[in-house]
Design goal:
With 355 residues, this protein is an alpha+beta fold. It has 6 helices and 19 strands.
């Protein structure tokens, strides 16, 4: 950060501005945004950024302030995408002015090159990429990236650009890449290499097909990092299936030596067990599914775990199939009564949909 404030402005013609802004604010509260009113304006604050919604004639004016260029990009993207979503069929034109209004590529976009590939287990393939700016992926509080998997038949890969609305656009929207979220399993800053683990499926979706067919030298676009990761705590509960295993494994091996807690990893069979590094006081349990319903063993294990007593600083991190996610999130919020900053429970996939 260079100490200056970056700004952007837009005038938006909304048919029902109060309803759209109210829905946007309610949604952002779920992401820990602070909402207030000042002299009739609505002010939204999140992650060091602010967005002020005011009235200018018949238009809604949005003024954004951010501590750096990348935060400004994400603030514009977030506001624009949700305004368009909540405006519905009456979606207005959005055109930003201000700092860096002429950006070409998203600032979090990079092109990685495949340098190696090996199978960690029968159904987990590790692909190694060379990355010009691997430092971006060294953070432990944002472990994920979006992989841009090109559509078959294109002579040249299609890379994203930033439209005047602040939203990502494509030269050929009908052939835009499939986006799949993956964990950065490890980073080697000395060589610029990053590893990403892929689960191989019999009913392969775009991500699994990419991992099965990839060759050294393949270029792939990524957007990131993003997504919640490791948070400081004195006691942890981790829970996840194969799709979450790379994230949990990376967090376990980066915990402080005195960290305590429990980790549940649900896998299809014993052959998928990996030798993971972890602190001695983290109890690691491999839950072998053996044909049982996805997530059932995770739900059972988390539900049976007693909440630590005393003044322990607890953090619960879980990622799994959608049905299990709902139950585990309910446990975190209603049974354990954890505040938002003390848990992250997400659905990585939904049974019946390809990855």
């Amino acid at each position: 950060m260079d100490g200056r404030t970056y700004t952007a402005q837009a005038l938006i013609d909304l048919a029902d501005p109060q309803a759209v802004i109210a829905e946007l604010c309610n949604h952002m509260r779920e992401h820990n945004a602070e909402i207030s009113e000042e002299s009739g304006d609505v002010l939204l604050r999140l992650s060091g950024c602010s967005a002020r919604f005011s009235t200018e004639g018949a238009m809604t004016r949005v003024d954004i302030e951010a501590p750096d260029f990348e935060h400004l990009y994400f603030a514009r993207l977030t506001i624009a995408s949700h305004v368009l979503e909540f405006a519905g069929e009456a979606a207005p034109e959005i055109r930003w002015s201000g700092d860096h209004g002429d950006m070409a590529r998203p600032p979090n976009f990079q092109i990685l090159t495949v340098t190696g590939c090996r199978d960690v287990t029968p159904h987990m393939r590790r692909i190694t990429f060379h990355c010009e700016n691997a430092t971006r992926f060294a953070r432990l509080d944002a472990l994920h990236l979006n992989l841009l998997i090109q559509q078959p038949g294109l002579a040249e890969p299609q890379w994203p650009f930033v439209g005047t609305s602040g939203i990502i656009e494509w030269e050929r929207p009908d052939l835009k890449p499939s986006m799949r979220k993956y964990t950065v399993r490890s980073v080697d800053l000395s060589t610029g290499q990053v590893d990403i683990d892929f689960v191989l499926h019999t009913d392969a979706g775009p991500g699994s097909r990419f991992a099965e067919a990839v060759t050294v030298g393949t270029e792939v676009g990524v957007l990131g990092p993003g997504g919640g990761g490791l948070v400081d705590a004195s006691w942890y509960l981790f829970a996840g299936d194969e799709t979450a295993l790379p994230a949990i494994a990376r967090m376990l091996e980066n915990l402080s030596a005195d960290a305590a807690g429990v980790a549940y990893l649900e896998i299809s069979g014993a052959a998928e067990i990996q030798n993971l590094r972890k602190p001695a006081a983290i109890d690691l349990h491999w839950l072998i599914r053996n044909g049982e319903k996805f997530g059932a063993l995770l739900v059972e294990a988390v539900s049976a775990t007693p909440r630590p007593q005393g003044d322990k600083n607890i953090y619960l991190w879980a990622a799994c199939e959608f049905a299990a996610f709902k139950t585990i999130r309910q446990c975190a919020r209603q049974t354990w009564k954890l505040k938002n900053e003390h848990h992250l429970v997400v659905a990585y996939w939904r049974d019946g949909k390809t990855l």
